[in-house]
Each structure stands twice: as C-alpha cells, then as structure tokens.
UniProtKB/TrEMBL annotation:
<protein>
    <submittedName>
        <fullName>TetR/AcrR family transcriptional regulator</fullName>
    </submittedName>
</protein>
<dbReference type="InterPro" id="IPR009057">
    <property type="entry name" value="Homeodomain-like_sf"/>
</dbReference>
<keyword id="KW-0805">Transcription regulation</keyword>
<keyword id="KW-0238">DNA-binding</keyword>
<dbReference type="Pfam" id="PF02909">
    <property type="entry name" value="TetR_C_1"/>
</dbReference>
<feature type="DNA-binding region" description="H-T-H motif">
    <location>
        <begin position="33"/>
        <end position="52"/>
    </location>
</feature>
<keyword id="KW-0804">Transcription</keyword>
<dbReference type="GO" id="GO:0003700">
    <property type="term" value="F:DNA-binding transcription factor activity"/>
</dbReference>
<dbReference type="InterPro" id="IPR036271">
    <property type="entry name" value="Tet_transcr_reg_TetR-rel_C_sf"/>
</dbReference>
<dbReference type="InterPro" id="IPR001647">
    <property type="entry name" value="HTH_TetR"/>
</dbReference>
<dbReference type="GO" id="GO:0045892">
    <property type="term" value="P:negative regulation of DNA-templated transcription"/>
</dbReference>
<dbReference type="Pfam" id="PF00440">
    <property type="entry name" value="TetR_N"/>
</dbReference>
<dbReference type="InterPro" id="IPR004111">
    <property type="entry name" value="Repressor_TetR_C"/>
</dbReference>
<dbReference type="InterPro" id="IPR050109">
    <property type="entry name" value="HTH-type_TetR-like_transc_reg"/>
</dbReference>
<dbReference type="GO" id="GO:0000976">
    <property type="term" value="F:transcription cis-regulatory region binding"/>
</dbReference>
<feature type="domain" description="HTH tetR-type">
    <location>
        <begin position="10"/>
        <end position="70"/>
    </location>
</feature>
Amino acid sequence: MPEHPRGRPPLPAEEIFAEALSLLADGGQESLGMRALARRLGSSTSTLYRQFPGGKDELCTRLAEHIMSEIVAALARSDLGDRWDQVVERSAVVTFDVLHRHPHSASLFAGQVHFGPMGLTRYERSLTLLMAAGLSASDAGAADHALARLIVGYALQSAQDTEDDRAAVFEYYRGLDAGQYPSLSTVVPALPKDVRSEFRFALHTFMIGLRARTGGSPGTGQARVDT
C-alpha cells in the first residue's frame, strides 16, 4: 500500500470521538489530552493535530457537536408529546439521559458555548417553541438558558455521584440523633435515591413556574416544533 503523502492516514472521526468520550468518562477533561488520546487510538499526536489543528480546544468543540448530534437524534426518536410544556420537559429528560450516558460530557457545555450546526438547530427550535407558548423574546432566552444550566448542572453531578458515596451519606444522616435533628431524621429517608430522580423533581418544579409565566395554560401556544 503506498505511503500516505502526509504521514499516517486520517482516523475515522467516530473512532476518535468514541475514544475521547472514554477518556472523559475515566477522568474528566483533565484526562482528555491529545497525547493520551493518540495512545488510546494507537496513533500519533501529529496525526491527530492534522485532523484537529486547534488541538484540545478544537477537539472539545467538535466532541460537543458530536454529543449534540446524538441528542438531536434521540429527540427525533422520542415521543415528546403534543403540548409545548410536554415537549420542553420531555426534551430536557432526553438531553439529560444522553449526557448521563457519557460521564463528564456535560463539562463540554459548561460556561458559554459557541454552538455548531446541531447545537444551533436545538437552540433555534427551543426558542421558537418557548416564544410560541407565549413567552417574550427575553423570557424565552432566559428560560432556555436556565433549563440548559439545570440539565448540565445535574449531569455534571451525576458523573460524581456513585451509589457507594450516596449510601455512605445517607448512612451518616441516619445515624444522627433524631431528638436533636428531627427534620433531618424525617426527610433523609424520603430523599430521592439517585441524581436522575433529583433532576426530574427540579425539572418538574421549573416547569410549574414556566407554565405560570405563560399564563398557566399547558395548551397555550404552538403544539409542537418538529425535532
């Protein structure tokens, strides 16, 4: 086979992203370096830099777009309902679940993000839906940002939250003196048992406020924006 004119041939993008997500899952963004990724791929850093001239920053940007593509595809496969509030709430759960499946991937969306085509598509559809529901432009933007921070924040926490750690915390609180801490003794056994359940509660509470902001009618506004 003739030698590739610029060294090793480029690697399939899907293979690169799969290994990058594996590195993220192992240790977060600190573990996602070009050298470490090249080792995982059995390649060289020079090959990776030819495909990602911007280095780790470009890799993270394109990896975020890859995740966003997975989110958009998952939304397209899901039954999101007919009312605008169903679409918003169920879309948030689908998005959280995708991020949860890829530990630490939510860190790619922390802070201000310049979206690629898939991210822009999701952003546009969300704003269109919220304004059709009766929110002003400023309220629609604020609602979308607040919802995104809610999803990303809980997804970030889910990467750190293990069953053993949670069990140890519950055991500590259960061991407190019920006479001195009566509310704690009552509430702790009833707490959600995982981060996803906590997220669903926070999301449901958020949606109550959002519906009130639009006038309180779940059926108000456009029924659905295609995803």
